[in-house]
Design goal:
Largest sheet: 5 strands, antiparallel
Helix content: 55-70%
Number of helices: 5
Length: 275
């Protein structure tokens, strides 16, 4: 590629960049002018209203309404000060850099070419772009944080517990029939006399105080009476041990002790439920 072609490409790129910057500046100026006009109209309306309300008040000085070209809103004054400060800081940095480069070139005996200080409008435009980028980044971060906290709250928020009233109401809405124990067992097998003895021995060991013994008699002799009877619709083996008679269902569904001619259940806390 020849030098002329390279130079032409470089100039075309610079011209494109300049046109883009000019377009952005024009757009920015139009936006600022629109906002300026809006702020001015608002100020005029407010000042006129105040002047009309207090025109008859002694000692009141009417608010002077300047032409639109001379008017500056508070935000415009604040922005102008910020731009002046940013431009002054930028110029100071370039001058400092130029001073260092000049001293270095003088030391080496080379010609010094200072860095050009750009126009204020160019610096303001660049600063405005940077501000827009930072604002966009901050907005994205804030949106992400809000979404994150919403998701965390949904995932880890505690499940509301029922109050006593709600729990009572919920329980009352279901009508359960009380369980009855007819001892009509069809799923369990018939157990042998020896297995029933082992079962009775364990029941006596666990309940000897409730039965009325002064000590644990579960190791005493348990005798089968060679007969079966029906208790609560269940066929039972009859045993004796230490002066008391017991009935053990053939399907080991419970255990009874004879007290005053009645069969009292020893299992399920003295209720006629299955063992």
């Amino acid at each position: 590629m020849s030098k002329e072609t390279k130079q032409a490409k470089k100039e075309a790129k610079a011209a494109k960049k300049s046109a883009k910057a000019e377009k952005a500046a024009s757009k920015m100026a139009a936006k600022a002018e629109k906002k300026h006009s809006k702020d001015y109209n608002k100020f005029v309306k407010k000042a006129t209203k105040k002047n009309n309300q207090k025109s008859n008040k002694p000692g009141y000085t009417p608010i002077v309404i300047p032409p639109i070209d001379e008017y500056q809103s508070k935000s415009e004054i604040k922005l102008a000060k910020a731009n002046d400060k940013a431009y002054a800081s930028y110029v100071k940095k370039i001058e400092k850099k130029n001073a260092k480069m000049e001293a270095k070139c003088a030391k080496k005996g080379k010609p010094f070419v200072p860095l050009a200080i750009p126009e204020k409008d160019d610096v303001v435009l660049q600063t405005s772009k940077s501000r827009k980028v930072w604002r966009m980044i901050i907005r994205i971060l804030l949106i992400w944080l809000v979404i994150y906290f919403i998701v965390m709250w949904i995932m880890y928020s505690p499940v509301p517990l029922l109050t006593v009233e709600e729990d009572t109401t919920a329980a009352a809405s279901y009508d359960y029939e009380p369980y009855s124990n007819p001892h009509e067992i069809t799923t369990t097998p018939d157990y042998t006399i020896a297995e029933a003895k082992v079962f009775l021995k364990q029941v006596i060991h666990d309940n000897w105080k409730n039965i009325g013994y002064s000590s644990d008699v579960s190791n005493d002799s348990i005798t089968y009476n060679n007969k079966t009877i029906v208790v609560n619709n269940a066929n039972c083996y009859v045993f004796t041990c230490s002066g008391k008679t017991y009935a053990v269902p053939i399907k080991l569904s419970g255990c009874y002790v004879v007290e005053n001619g009645e069969y009292i259940p020893l299992t399920f806390d003295n209720v006629n439920y299955l063992f």
